[in-house]
Structure to design on (81 residues):
């Protein structure tokens, strides 16, 4: 949870936006244009988005390793920047 006194995102960083408030699905990443302490403005939407509907994007979302010829192993990193 983000406290009121800290900005959630920096201008120019990317964020994921929750698709619907009751479903855990994410859209994006979208670049942040403007921020306040509780809301964020992105380029792709004309309305402000509340900070509870945002999360930071993963640095490296997927890593692909070739196990054998013709076989790939996909892994996901959950470290956020």
């Amino acid at each position: 949870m983000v406290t009121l006194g800290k900005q959630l995102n920096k201008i120019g960083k990317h964020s994921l936006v929750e698709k619907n408030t009751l479903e855990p699905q994410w859209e994006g990443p979208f670049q942040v244009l403007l921020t306040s302490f509780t809301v964020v403005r992105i380029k792709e939407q004309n309305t402000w988005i509340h900070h509870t509907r945002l999360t930071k994007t993963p640095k490296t979302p997927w890593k692909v390793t070739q196990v054998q010829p013709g076989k790939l192993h996909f892994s996901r990193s959950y470290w956020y920047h």
In short: The radius of gyration is 16 Å.
